């Protein structure tokens, strides 16, 4: 590791020590990434301060599908601007990146935050010529932690897009450390998903044949969201005949898997290289 990495690593691990619900200090990562490789625009896709999105467009024109990145935060915390380091990584691979904010618990419960992300995608599709510089015919869903759960729900339950008349096709899913087999009786989960059943709330239940390629990443040392979630989701996808690539990283915990997308920290895990390899097919 280089000297900068050694300096940054203890700071980042300290500010992220609580796990998924403490991702606000991701500004530490944003402060050390190179700038100037993309243009940022901010938009409102609905009423209220939380129903906004950021669009990061690479300065170099590309025909690759945009990526909708849904951040985590246990459905209680998070802000789109904290994840500029993710946008930097993905725009560097030629993809426009859309990062929506969404409403949080306790102001709302499931499925409001999933609806918000679906609404953000519909807004982007309707306004694609100005937001993306071209029509949006397809897109890739991506998320970390609770955001990976939302992205996986949108990928497996097509009703969210049907209800909104989304015509663009979801052509890929990248899930990082998501709770796909959500324990609805868990003390933290139960009030947020009150009244929901497994069919509504678990991506593992809604897998169907003919889904687009999926990449699932998880740290084997993750204590926040245990790796069995990814294992079960991967098995369901495979059993339905869907293309899925799954990677488990020894010694990697919940936050490091996404923090290592930041340019100075890519030696911390294989997540960036595996995402780059997956995206090479588009």
UniProtKB/TrEMBL annotation:
PROSITE patterns: PROKAR_LIPOPROTEIN. It holds the Pfam family BD-FAE. Transmembrane segments: none annotated. It comes from the Bacteria. The lineage of its organism: Bacteria, Pseudomonadati, Pseudomonadota, Gammaproteobacteria, Thiotrichales. Keywords: Hydrolase. This is Alpha/beta hydrolase. PANTHER family: AB HYDROLASE SUPERFAMILY PROTEIN C4A8.06C, KYNURENINE FORMAMIDASE. GO terms for molecular function: hydrolase activity. Residues 53-237 form the BD-FAE-like domain.
